[in-house]
Amino acid sequence: MLASLYVAASMPSYVETKIVDEDVEPVDFNDDADIIGISFMTYNAPRAYEIADRFRAKGKTVIFGGYHPTFMPDEAIQHADAVCIGEAESNVPHMMKDYMNGRLKRFYRSPLVDLTGLPVPDRNLLRQRAYITTNTLQATRGCFNRCGFCSVARFNQYKLRTRPVGEVVEELKGLGREVLFMDDNIALDKEYARELFKAMIPLKKRWHSQCGISIAEDEELIRLAAQSGCRGLFIGFESLSRQSLESWRKLGNKRVDYLEAVKKLHGAGIGIFAGFIFGSDHEGPDVFADTLDFLLEANIEVLQATRLTPFPGTPLFEQLDSEGRIFDKDWSHYDFFHVVHQPLNMSVRELHNGTAWLQQQFYRYDRIIQRVRRASGYLHTGTVLRALLPLNLGYRHKLAAYTSLQKKLSFQPKAG
Ligand code: SF4
Q1: How far is CA 272 from CA 129, 178, 210, 303, 330, in A?
Q2: Fold classification of 2-109 (topology level)
Q3: I want to staple 135 with a disulfide (CB 3.0 to 4.6 A). Which of 84, 175, 241, 258 is the partner?
């Protein structure tokens, strides 16, 4: 919800703003707002279009923003009065002015926002009790890498922007002890990260963020991260296969010894939430058991295993689409649970079921207990109790709910 808060913070003073998050509260279709702004990802595009159509039928003006409308503006405009392409913050004042003058344009192309002087978001606009935390912020935005499956880098025009460290520190002072950075890769610019972590040490925060595995190549940076209160990092390992990493252009990962890297982070008291993607052209059905062996040996604390998903706007989408290998363009299936493309070295069913098998194996009760025992030897007790355990149980619960839903719907992956 941080992006919506930043959009709200960029509104001119004559605009009254309200934020509704459909994940935590229902949409009120009788709301008296003049303009309905909807931001969405690919998987919830069908729902966003349905909401927009209902509001427009009541005479409301609808403006879209976010990743999916940015990459599919011609599709999105069929359900909206205007589409904001790129970050909305810089265009919001123009859009409001055009609306007031009855001259709203269909498309607004937004330049990247300068992060210096970024307004501090008003978190009171959120139903704070509905979230695990609203102590979220950003120190950096975007990424200059070009991983084929990633829409973040393209959305941010392949640029990394950083906020002045002093401004981040000031914002941190107003937040609680536990904070979550919503950065795409907090240590991508190592010099910046060094400066930020040093400045954070006196604040005595505990924090989590997304980060690239290359942080493990810099022992001083790991030490500073730990001293500044880093308790856990979400790291996109993506694959154990060098060929897969190369084909996705995830080049920074290629040179890193994953086991060594994990050992170093654990040694500093930093837990790891690992992201793995299955469905590369270079992996067959053996990949699931091989990956499980690695996860257990390394004692990765939390796993996010996803099926390769070619999001519109990414080089991966363009490649697979041109090869005629995307067989499902129902955007609601672009949720990492469904397989939407034809893999090369395994069937669709093997990819779907293999990923599910890996998740079930990883989140078995006996393995969670074993994981907690081992992690208690190197993580802070608070991290084990407040992060590792709830995340493991939460994932287990979510997987069980999804499996039972599949059974109820007699869901079968489309054979391939
Ligand atoms: S996956 Fe990570 S490293 Fe690769 S482009 Fe996206 S944000 Fe950057």
Answers
A1: 26, 17, 10, 9, 33
A2: Rossmann fold (3.40.50)
A3: 175
